[in-house]
Structure formats: C-alpha cells, structure tokens
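Sequence in, structure out. Go.
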Amino acid sequence: MLALVVVAHPCGDSLTHALAERAEAGLRTAGYAVALLDLYALGFRAAMSEAERTSYHEDQPILDPMVAEHANLIKQATVVVFVYPTWWSGLPAILKGWLERVIVPGVGFHFDERTGKVKPGLGHVRRLVGISTYGSPRSAVRLINDNGRRTISRALRLSCGVRTRTQWLGLYSVDNSTKSERQDFAASVERTMASL
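Output:
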C-alpha cells in the first residue's frame, strides 16, 4: 500500500516540514510505503504553461516529466496526505498549481465519451488527509470557509471513489501557540497516521 505525502512550504525547517515528517513516521508505522513530494525542494513549477493548457483535452495532457512522475504516484496511492500552511484562506500557490497540473484528464478524471459526463479517475484512493496550520482561530477560519480544506475534501474527493474518506487535522492560531501545543499537535498527527 502506498501513501503519497505532498508538502508545500518553502522553508525546510518549518513546522509544516516537521509535521510532514511525523505524518510519514506514522504512516510507516501503519505499514504503508511512503512517497514524499516536497514541492518547493523539487522546484515544482506551479503555473500551467500554454502548451499544457492546449494539450489538456488531448490524449497526452501531461508534458512535463516531473508532473508525469507525480501523476504516476497518485495513480498508485491508496492514501494521499497534504501538509501545508493555510495562506490567504487557501492553499499555497504551489499546491494549487500541483493540483491543476497533475489532476488532469486521464489521471483525476475521465470524460465518458457517450454521455460527456465526468467520471472519477482516483477510485483507488481510500483516504484523503489534510494537515494544515492556520494563523487565525478556528472560528475565523470557518467564517471564511477554509478554502484549502474545501478544495481537498470536496473538489478533489469528487475525483475519488464514493467510499473515499476525508480527514482533517488543523492547528489553529499557530502564531499564538506554545511550543508544547505545537509538539502535542505533531504527536497527534503521527498517532492519527499510525492508526490509518
């Protein structure tokens, strides 16, 4: 069983990276093989090129070898975990770009040629997990709809099977949190991943 962990933070010494390490440790404890994609460290290009947009509805929508590698990984994964800070009430641009460039026709979904309807392409994914930090308190995050969470647990979930479960782990008011609170949250991330 493969778990794919996608990390989106530019600083390697960030809390986000520490949480990704704890998530990976928990997943390995649960018996998963883990593929970790550190988007910034990999130099992933967020912006879709004109050529990619033009080829989007063609037989081969993926033109970049790195994107093809990432698409291959998500096609194998039964668990996909996103670890990122919530910025401007949403996903970091690099993660949004990853979704736009990787979850393309033939990967995330297919068009039924007879009806023209969209059919999920990630039916093998059994669990989507989001792990995010927020500068705002939970009440403020709810007020502005937590767009990153909605993108992953609603929009991306539509590309998965009807039995795909979503799970969310959020550390709110991170800027005012204590070291002990951050450590407790990291430990809960590892425990939660170990129980999948």
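Check: The mean pLDDT is 96. The domain at 2-194 is CATH 3.40.50.360 (Rossmann fold).
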